[in-house]
Design goal:
Elements: H1 2-13, E1 16-33, E2 43-44, E3 50-60, E4 63-79, E5 82-98, E6 103-117, E7 121-138, E8 141-157, E9 166-181, E10 184-187
Length: 188
C-alpha cells in the first residue's frame, strides 16, 4: 500500500494541472430517434449554435486526462417543415496524448447531460463517445475539432397541453464541434 501511494504521489509531482476554457460552434448535426414521442426532435441542424465549455485535468509525460463540461446554446433543427430550438449540456471525462509537435489527440466519454427542447420536451440520460484533435495555432491558443455521438435514453414531454410523461427512448445526436481554447496551468 505504501509503495502504491508513493508511486501515485511521485507521478503527480511531475504532473502539470490545467484548466482549459473553450468557445466555438457545432455543425453538421443530425438528430434521429427510434422510440421517442411523435413530437420529439428529428432532423438536421440548420444553423451554427454557440458552444461554451471547459476542461480540468492534468498532463504527465504527454499523457492528458481530466473532466469537462460544455453547453451548446440554440441547437436549431428542421423538423417536419417547422423549427425546433434546444440547449444541450454535457459532462464527461477524457484521456489523450499531447505530441511534442503542436498536436494533441483525445477521446472522451460523455456520461451526464440533457437536451432541453423549447417545444418538444427534454431528452435526458445522455451518454456517448467523442473523438477529437487539437492543433496549437498560437503559443497559448488551440484549435480543437471533435466528433460527438450522443445517445439519450429518456424523454420527458414538456408540452403544457399534454400530461408530463417519461418514456424510454433510443435517440441519437451526431455532430461536429470546432472550438478555440486557452489552456492555463494551475499547478506545475
Amino acid at each position: 500500500m505504501i509503495k502504491l501511494l508513493f508511486l501515485l504521489f511521485s507521478l503527480l509531482s511531475f504532473s502539470e494541472g490545467f484548466i482549459e476554457p473553450y468557445v466555438g460552434t457545432s455543425f453538421l448535426g443530425d438528430m434521429d430517434y427510434g422510440k421517442a414521442a411523435q413530437s420529439a426532435i428529428q432532423g438536421k441542424m440548420n444553423k451554427l449554435p454557440f458552444v461554451l465549455g471547459g476542461r480540468l485535468g492534468f498532463k504527465n509525460l504527454g499523457f492528458i486526462a481530466g473532466i469537462e463540461y460544455a453547453t451548446t446554446q440554440d441547437l436549431n433543427f428542421d423538423q417536419n417543415n417547422s423549427k425546433e430550438l434546444g440547449d444541450l449540456t454535457e459532462m464527461g471525462a477524457f484521456i489523450g496524448y499531447e505530441f511534442p509537435v503542436l498536436v494533441r489527440g483525445y477521446i472522451g466519454y460523455q456520461f451526464a447531460g440533457r437536451l432541453d427542447a423549447d417545444r418538444a420536451g427534454d431528452f435526458k440520460k445522455l451518454s456517448g463517445p467523442k473523438i477529437g484533435a487539437s492543433l496549437k495555432i498560437f503559443p497559448k491558443v488551440r484549435l480543437n475539432l471533435e466528433y460527438k455521438l450522443i445517445s439519450f435514453d429518456e424523454f420527458t414531454n414538456t408540452d403544457p397541453n399534454k400530461l408530463s410523461n417519461i418514456k424510454k427512448v433510443e435517440a441519437d445526436l451526431k455532430m461536429f464541434a470546432a472550438t478555440l481554447s486557452v489552456p492555463l496551468e494551475i499547478f506545475n
